[in-house]
Input
Amino acid sequence: MRYIITVFSLLMILLSGCQEEEELAVRSYPRLQTLPVSGNSNEGATFNADFLLRGEAEILAYGFVWDKKKLPTITESDRVIFQDQAEDSGFSTDIRSTLQEGEKYTVRAFVKTPEYLVYGQKVSFTSGGSNPPVITSVEPLVGTVGDTLMFKGRGFSYCVETNGVFVNNMLATAIWSTDRELKVIVPRNIKPENIIRVNIAGSAVLFDKSFRRSSPVIHSVSSSEVTVGDTIEVVGEGFSYLKNSNKVFIGNQACQVLDAAKKQLSVQIPTTLEAGVYVLHLTVEEEQTTYTSITVIK
Amino acid sequence: MRNKPLFAFVVCMALLFVNLPLVAQDYFRKGYVVTLAQDTLQGMIQERSLEENYQSCIFKKDREVKTYLPDGLLGYGFNDGSYFSAQMKQDAFVEVIVLGDISLYHYKNTFLLKKNEEVVTITENPEKIALNEEERDIDRYEWKRDISRLVRDRITDYNEQLLHLSPTRRNLTNLVIRYNKQEASLYSLYATNQPIPDVKFGFMLGLNRFQLNAGGNFWGYPYLNQSYESYLPSVGVMVKVSFPRFSEKISFQGEMHYDREDYTYFYQQEENGVLNYHDVYMHFSKLSFPLSMKYRIPLGRYSLSIQGGVNFDRYGTVDTRLLSESVAGSEVTRAPEREVLPYFETLQTGYWGGLEFGRTFTKFEGAIAVRYFKMPRFYELPSITISNNRISINLILTQK
Output
């Protein structure tokens, strides 16, 4: 009887201890699962993922995408992308910016192979907030309205509209961004010295240098004797790319700016102008310069 | 290792069977023999099946083992009560139930009532009767008339009761005792050590084939299959309750089994250029509580039993997951994982039946059983009903 009890006990232990390994179906792509978000605090959160089946496919890139309005994708949402070799078990990363406190986000892990872009399932969480971005440089620091400023740093948002950049408290239009670079257009109504501030997901940071408004300078015009209706080329520096921001007057008559570049303006001589010798005035964001002289002949 | 449970089951079964001869060695109980010279010799008597007890007696005294045939003894008995006499038949021992003015004996499937020199033999088939060992076909009530004739000198109000009497051990024992008591005559009741009830414990090893069968309208449930299968072992304990004074053929059995069920199903479907994959993983562990009534047909040392009853399953682990992925062009999107059976009832009721082929060993009774369980409402969706059917082969070892 002791022998029977021994065999019985052995079988009980084996049977209760046996956990059959799950046999996952093999696919031609890595099988990925997004894990719950961890370390959710006012300084950010940690995104996690693991491979259900790593597979044999080469992994070109991997990372996470997240969004608070729609199903996140690698083209339209915030993301973090790694291109080193992913571990077989999985991957995770700390996200320290772009997460707004109290907002509900959806995150997905992704893996890019030569043939497939594989998304893990979506995981939702409510953010505890995050740190502001870090600005390491802004170029140029001298310019005028319509100029493009290039920000470098980390923690910017891939979603262009999420990056709130202010120059002298005026919202600058962001035109392109990654998590490490950001391009914005200098807005109107700036002052000679302008504080630069970036606000992402409720967290703001000031850049330690200010943006200085430049003054236009006219070196030459294409013709100093013109007739009404002519177009002249004004060559110089500190002009605005925005045509309407370059105010050109001959005498007291406003000229239409046909084309504008940083160093050249195309200006049409007003048809109402009387023959005579005039001074050309150019104003860009309150900064003025003049050129003498323009002779108008009939 | 995927088949680890199955491997463990096979190893343990092999160990058990290889060593069965060790476990099943001869077993002796205290007893005695009455020699032809009417001497009573105390010693040990080998415990064997009833059929073997009718044929011979193996007696051990002072390490000497001797086999007695019916012509070599007046009888033999066990110290706990039962006694076999060689004086009723020439070539067999018969079990003595009552000795008195009317004595009652049992041999195979017959009862013998002896009064003076007259012996009435009653088979357990009531349509047969033998008078003074001469058997003949009679009508089904004739044996009752013979019994009535035997007892009417002391029991006069017996005819009405006799109408409803069936020739069971209990009925005949009560009748003979009542007859002997009427005149306050001396009588001896044997085999009274048989307990009421008789409770035996055992354990069981099983190999199970679980099958989930789904029926109904599958619209909206593309990931559900019509059938899932799982092969896994089980272990269990049992208690058998019988009432041998009333019937040695019927017993009641309660069991508790521990087992697991694992199901996997992969399904893919193309729809509007999108390839959808669905992986279904279901893992269960549970305790089963089969309650049954068993009818045993003795076949000498062997027996065949039919059994049936109800079964209760109490599920502990219920892990049912659906993993879905869709492939649109080169983009793979995994859907959130969800439960396949989100409203699973962890207590389920069903019924079962089975056949059991048993053999009596010295120390225990062993049996191989084939059983079928049906849990008709394993899971119910608005349009689909899933049942769980189980076929199991069990090795059952019960204390004797």
